[in-house]
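We close this part of the discussion by returning to an individual protein. Part of our work consisted of pairing the sequence of a single chain with a tokenised description of its backbone. What the numbers capture is local backbone geometry rather than side-chain detail. The amino acid sequence and the backbone structure tokens for this protein are reproduced below.
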Amino acid sequence: MDSLFFTSDERLFFERVIEDGLLQNRRGVYWWVVRFAVAQSLKMDDVPDERFKAVGGAGRSELHLEQVTGQGQTKMPDYDEAMRLMLSVKHGIDLVGDEKRYVDMLQRHARRGLNILAAAWTSGRSFHDFLLDDLFLDANLALTHDDEDRAHVVTDGAMLMQGLKQIGVSATLAADPIDGPRLTRFALTLATVDDYDRARKRLDDLAFAIGLGNSGIVLKREAKERRVTLDIPRPSGTWKDISWSAIRPSLSGRQELLAVCPGVDSQGQAFVFDLAEAPHLFVAGATGSGKSMCLNAILLSLLAARRPPELLMIDPKGVDFADYNGWSKLRDRSVITDMSLAVEKLRGLVDEMESRQEVLRELGVRNIAEAQQTGSPLERLVVVIDELSDFMMGRSGAEEPLIRLAQKARAVGIHLLLGTQRPEAATFPGLLRANIPSRIALTVQKSADSRIILDEGGAENLLMRGDMLIKLAGKDVVRVHGARVEAADVKKAMTRT
């Protein structure tokens, strides 16, 4: 009997949907979710890439096609032949007589669809309502509206004015709305200064009034008198996808030492900053929020730098960064997956930091940039840790070297890029927080998680799928929509350097 295979995290998602989403029937089964996932993946035109092929190893979950498609069933409907024909027509290949290729294609659609569902659905929301909105209502809108009309399906100027009136705010539209990748920006002139305070305190009521439910609206002051902007989310079916290839040109000819671009701002402009000035970065978000995609976009940005840094990469799961194995700029040409070895490497970096400081003193310079100008062979090094909580919660001894690196490594060109799915106080302790002021928050479950990352709320209202808030040292928070990075993008970038 043919089977599909899933990771332990994907199994946890099955359980989460059944326990938290299918509230009317908590005796649901995994293959229900797999069928929904395949339907979601089939909305996309391309073939799922190799990241979504069958997984191996201990801890994986197996579902027989007898469950997923009804293959060989006599008592239940058998949709297997229909699925084969649908996939054959969808991709222009004959899967009717090629069992191995058919199972592989179905496997890829199932895992890609799960990835999409995990990014779009949040616990506590009815999964029935989510499917109605995302699979059916958005699909119907696509059939009945052209692109221009769909951009304002939820909110137009008249609807916004009515919503503002309901919360006691008097304003007029100051300009035509501007559509970004996921948000529509409305420029408003408030009738009085007091209207700003009323609007700020009642944004949740405004969202409810115009039919957005819990979707976050962002209010910002502008330089002109009584001028503000409201960024209002649109339906996911109207979102514009941001590919890595679309933002890659924005990194050409930059003057920054380590220019990185995780995505575009709310109006679609590439958001670029200098990691060398950050000088370390903490990235956190819940499962499915797009954290790994964000880290990959930052890494590809580093590969595109004028002088690409050396990388030391630590990935406890051994999955997200596997494509970087063998790259010439990767220390030991391998991503570290063994935690004991990882801690040993971090302690060794503290010694290397002190050796580099001695080199700077001998050269009579203050930092690595000045040292390189004298002809020194010192290269910048970016230390990437994909799941910080595995270090901090496991009492591995990694906290001390990480704090020392965060405190003193900037001048010698060693930078930290730390990621986690669990933004907890124990994961990001005080001394580390004090020395890593630059942070990226993707969607989190609670406002308390957002405050741990950013020192303020807001990330709990993000839209998943790479939607993020970026807070750089000494600057205001900026909302950014992450770029989609494919395995092919990583391989292409590695061949260029």
